[in-house]
Design a protein that fits this description.
The complex is a heterodimer.
Chain A (H helix, E strand, L loop, with lengths): L5 E11 L5 E12 L4 E5 L6 H7 L9 E9 L2 E2 L5 H7 L4 E4 L3 H4 L6 H12 L4 H14 L5 H4 L9 H13 L5 E5 L7 H18 L2 E6 L2 H7 L2 E6 L2 E7 H6 L4 H8 L8 E2 L28 H5 L5 E2 L5 E2 L17 E2 L10 E10 L6 H6 L9 E9 L3 E5 L6 H8 L7 E6 L3 E2 L9 H6 E4 L3 H4 L6 H13 L3 H14 L16 H14 L4 E5 L7 H18 L2 E6 L2 H7 L2 E6 L2 E7 H4 L6 H9 L38 H5 L4 E5 L2 E4 L4 H15 L2
Parallel strand pairs in A: 3-8, 3-9, 6-7, 7-8, 17-22, 17-23, 20-21, 21-22
Antiparallel strand pairs in A: 1-2, 1-4, 4-5, 9-10, 10-13, 11-14, 12-13, 15-16, 15-18, 18-19, 23-24, 24-26, 25-26
Chain B lengths: L17 H9 L2 H23 L31 H7 L2 H28 L1 H16 L2 H12 L3 H28 L2 H9 L3 H37 L11 H8 L8 H28 L10
The chains are: A alpha/beta, B mainly alpha.
Chain lengths: 682, 297
């Protein structure tokens, strides 16, 4: 392509392994974009998307080197430039916005100084004009009160604001290209929507070309004109965003799209079998062939060339014209729509409140409880046998605190937790008997942290089996193999250490460990958040299957509304440690909603070129819940007056166990929401 | 697609196997040299009583401060004893006492640190302040006091050295434990209802073991030096037993006339310490504790 701003030609990047072999991370990548274009670079972890983005700045992580090909910026080869020439381009013409802005900003330097430094390095402004420019930049990224922000340190602003500061810094040199490495991944749903809308506006205001690197097709869909999909170090599909999202010409992209849970459907999405080849695999033919349902002999022998399709996509697939008519790799599993006997309660929480405040020395002597607003308050929940209750909220909403309290790791300050109607669960874990411990199991978000890296799978599974059932060595092995089978892993995994497995396999082992106890209640803490979408679909499917087999109840905590929709029959929405809405998921996900639920649902990004997020409330993060009134009073778009600040809102029931905690009468609330909805979507 | 995926070795994250670790260490230059030096010294210490050319106490008046000769390769000391013989024997005491001392120090300091790191709270606060107090005392003065009162027998020296070195092991082990206790697998074990003993032994220890091993190896070299310093000051070993520290102390007055009588034990002692240090360094790299070593990607 002529006139391209950045042009990657047949680039291969690799490293030399300990064994002396040359292994490629990127293979024969051809990629280019012109002025003002916005391109999304999508793929699952380990597919080389970050390496490619950094290579576009002429940067490679240590140990990596260019095996062949080049990267041209305005027709100059970046890897042939000397360091001082590169320094002039980086940060100035080519700017990077890193994933975790909190870590990318210097913690000991004030925000004003940090941005001023970029201005000094990349512009010729006179010193006295710089401050003005910094303020201009901060207002450009829509930060409120920029003057006041100059004197703050990075830790004094919220995650979303940190990300905005990082964007302001990147814009300081008026770059022609912005590279964004997972710019919104660590952020809350509402903050993410705000930041993406900001980036979208900036792209059209400044005409800067942007490259979004992300695993999240929903986020990329919102901001990109063009989408490129990577798999195992290769660019397998590239084309206009609409085409890629609607009619992907590559089976991998199609599988990826199908494995994303949708807000509108209560089904566990279909999953892709297998996993990407590791970087040291010797690949012959198509890298995706062993996971592809339509792969033939040709795919195993010959690496497919890049071909253009009629719809403007460029694809690396021998049979791309057949992709459209493919059946999904695995039929989606119907969600938890069964009606359950809700009177058979497994778990009941009654006016539970949790506080992290520690009494001071004087309070301890006087035996007083500190008089602070509890972190989690007034939680009334019940979970029936065999059902899934989704617990939804943004970070800091107290979801994990509630799970830890049920598990006995942090006793509640007030209220009663009962198990099976008669067992008191207020006791901490060391005062519960073994059988009670066995019946309640926890699964954690990140299997890297929840599995001891020094234990083999056999040892990991043996722990609960020995503790709860006192099995001997022979029985242990048989039971462990049976458990691995339930999570669809072979017995050869017994000897593996966590470091030798992929993220999805590790999470399956963690699930097997929880089910080794034959629990009646499983507490799932964001169990799929650390996984790739295709793996997430497999894990969700597995959880549903295990639930049906063992009739276990789940309390499923997640920030992802679409995931909860897929797996949970009933949903409770939490804000600042207080319940806002509870009920069957079909009711919670439709109007009328609690205003907070409405805000959350509006902010969800879907991999659909026609869906736009609805930004309602400010994305300002609140650090502590208000002492009185409605917890959502400060951000509510439907606030009706002082009653919201002073009086705790009542539970309003709509039937079917659906209840909304709001002062606004339900009919009125629904009318407001419908009106707002139709005004926004013409 | 044909995928060849050879079983991948992930250093620092595999089950601990002694032979494999030694082999991996020997692949690095520092490890190879270090292991060779330490191995040589240990071998010499074991077999030296049978291979020394002369008796280590025999005084030969012709050999007083004599230079190297074909019969006496390293000459004689101020009392006319063969320097080669005494140098070959001089490391035995240091090696035995420092090995035992280090072992005891790592065992008691390591376990106390582990327990303190796990339970935290008031007990942790109190014990750590005592540890701080002990660390503020110059240990050699304290050691001299104990030795002056109790004598210089091995049964006094080993526990005393082990006690003082164990105190700094507490800090290391406690910090390493803190690193582990914050992780979810400890929470998982607690939620499962495991006993504290099981958590310490099965969950934490395998994760701090590498740190303790490397720390122990470093401490071993310091303890050899400490023991030799004591001997040098005349508190370690009773003459006429051959010992490097003592030999250096005795020979230093005649350094101008008979440098070999000082140089030989100095070279022996420093090579031993360098060997241990190199091995500890290679061990740290092999186990993946050394952060400076970068991963290929």
């Amino acid at each position: 392509m002529t006139g391209a701003l950045v042009e990657v030609n047949n680039l291969s990047v690799g490293f030399t392994s300990a064994g002396g072999a040359t292994l490629a991370i990127l293979r024969n990548v051809d990629f280019s974009f012109g002025k003002g274009e916005t391109v999304g670079l999508v793929g699952e972890s380990g597919c080389g998307k970050s390496t490619l983005a950094l290579a576009m700045m002429g940067f490679l992580k240590s140990g990596l080197r260019v095996l062949e090909g080049d990267v041209l910026f305005r027709e100059h080869d970046l890897f042939a430039m000397d360091n001082s020439a590169l320094e002039d381009i980086r940060g100035g013409d080519l700017a990077l916005i890193p994933q975790n802005a909190g870590q990318a900003l210097t913690p000991t330097s004030r925000i004003g100084r940090q941005i001023e430094e970029s201005v000094r390095l990349h512009t010729t402004l006179a010193p006295e004009r710089r401050r003005e420019r910094v303020i201009e930049l901060l207002s450009q990224v829509r930060l409120p009160e920029p003057e006041e922000l100059l004197g703050r340190y990075p830790h004094e602003v919220s995650g979303g604001q940190q990300q905005r500061v990082a964007i302001a810094m990147a814009l300081a040199g008026k770059p022609e290209v912005l590279l964004l490495d997972e710019p919104t991944t660590g952020l809350d749903v509402t903050t993410q929507a705000h930041v993406l809308e900001l980036l979208r506006d900036l792209a059209s205001e400044t005409g800067t070309a942007m490259v979004y690197v992300s695993h999240d097709l929903g986020a990329v869909a919102r901001v990109s004109d063009r989408i490129a999909v990577m798999y195992a170090g290769e660019l397998v599909l590239q084309g206009p965003a609409r085409e890629v999202l609607r009619n992907p010409a590559h089976p991998y992209a199609r599988g990826l799209l199908l494995s994303i849970p949708k807000l509108k459907e209560a089904v566990v999405p279909s999953s892709m079998p297998g996993r990407p080849p590791p970087p040291d695999a010797v690949v012959q033919g198509c890298a995706f062939a062993d996971r592809c349902t339509m792969a033939g002999q040709l795919c195993c022998d010959v690496s497919p060339p890049l071909v253009s399709t009629a719809t403007g996509e460029v694809v690396r697939c021998h049979y791309h014209e057949k992709v459209e008519n493919l059946p999904p790799p695995k039929a989606p599993r119907q969600g938890d729509g069964r009606s359950r006997d809700l009177s058979d309660t497994v778990l009941r929480l009654d006016e539970v409140s949790i506080s992290y405040a520690k009494p001071g020395v004087i309070d301890q002597i006087l035996g007083r409880q500190p008089d602070v607003t509890p972190t989690v308050d007034d939680i009334v929940l019940d979970v029936a046998r065999g059902e899934t209750l989704g617990l939804v909220g943004e970070s800091g909403s107290g979801k994990s605190s509630i799970l830890n309290t049920i598990a006995g790791l942090r006793p509640p300050r007030k209220g009663a937790i009962t198990f099976e109607n008669d067992v008191n669960l207020n006791a901490p874990v060391d005062r519960r008997d073994t059988d009670l411990l066995r019946r309640i199991q926890l699964i954690f978000q990140n299997p890297d942290a929840s599995l001891n890296p020094r234990h083999t799978v056999a040892e990991l599974l043996a722990q609960p089996l020995r503790l709860y059932f006192g099995l001997d060595a022979g029985e242990l092995r048989d039971r462990s193999i049976a458990l691995l089978e339930q999570v669809r892993l072979g017995s050869h995994y017994l000897g593996r250490l966590p470091g030798q497995m992929s993220g999805g396999e590790k999470q399956r082992v963690a699930i097997a460990r929880a089910f080794a106890a034959e629990p009646e209640l499983v507490l799932c803490d964001e169990v799929t958040s650390a996984l790739d979408v295709s793996v997430q679909a497999v894990i969700l499917d597995l959880l549903m299957e295990l639930q049906a087999r063992h009739n276990a109840a789940y309390v499923y905590v997640s920030h992802d509304l679409a995931v909860v929709r897929a797996i949970a029959g009933r949903v409770a929405v939490l804000y600042q440690g207080r319940l806002c809405e509870i009920g069957p998921s079909s009711k919670v996900y439709s109007l009328p909603s609690h205003p907070y639920t409405e805000v959350l649902l509006g902010a969800v990004l879907e991999p659909d070129p026609d869906s736009a997020p609805v930004l309602m409330a400010e994305d300002a993060v609140e650090l502590s819940p208000p002492a009185r009134g409605c917890p959502f009073q400060r951000r509510c778009p439907h606030r009706i007056g002082t009653i919201c600040d002073t009086t705790k809102p009542p539970w309003q029931k709509t039937g079917d166990g659906h209840a909304i905690r709001c002062h606004i009468p339900l009919t009125d609330l629904e009318r407001r929401q419908r009106r707002a909805d139709s005004a926004r979507r013409p | 697609m044909a995928v060849a995926n050879p079983a991948r070795e992930i250093p620092g994250n595999r089950a601990f196997r002694f032979g494999a670790v030694i082999r991996e260490m020997a692949r690095r230059p520092s490890g190879l040299v270090g292991l060779a030096i330490v191995g040589g010294h240990v071998l010499l210490a074991v077999i030296s009583p049978w291979i020394v050319p002369y008796d280590f106490t025999t005084q030969n008046s012709h050999l007083v401060l004599a230079g190297p000769s074909p019969e006496h390769w390293l000459g004689g000391d101020h009392l006319g004893r063969d320097v080669l013989t005494r140098t070959m024997l001089g490391g035995r005491q240091a090696l035995v006492i420092s090995s035992l001392g280090t072992l005891i120090a790592v065992l008691w300091g390591g376990s106390l640190g582990l327990v303190l790191g796990l339970i935290g709270g008031k007990a942790d606060d109190v014990v750590m302040r005592v540890v701080d107090a002990f660390m503020a005392i110059p240990w050699i003065l304290f050691l001299l006091l104990i030795i002056a009162v109790l004598g210089t027998a091995d049964v006094v020296l080993i526990p005393t050295l082990a006690f003082f070195y164990g105190i700094s092991v507490i800090r290391i082990s406690r910090a390493a434990t803190h690193d582990v206790t914050a992780r979810d697998f400890i929470t998982a074990a607690r939620a499962r209802g495991e006993r504290m003993w099981t958590i310490v032994w099965r969950e934490i220890l395998p994760n701090v073991r590498d740190v303790l091993l490397v720390d122990g190896a470093m401490r071993w070299s310091w303890m050899i030096l400490a023991f030799s310093s004591l001997s040098f000051l005349g508190f370690g070993i009773t003459p006429p037993t051959a010992d490097w520290g003592l030999m250096i102390a005795n020979g230093r007055g005649y350094m101008a006339v008979a440098p070999w009588a000082v140089l030989a034990p100095i070279i022996a002692l420093s090579s031993m310490i360098i060997g241990v240090n190199l091995s500890a360094d290679a061990l740290a790299k092999t186990l993946g504790i050394d952060r400076a070593q970068k991963a290929p990607v």
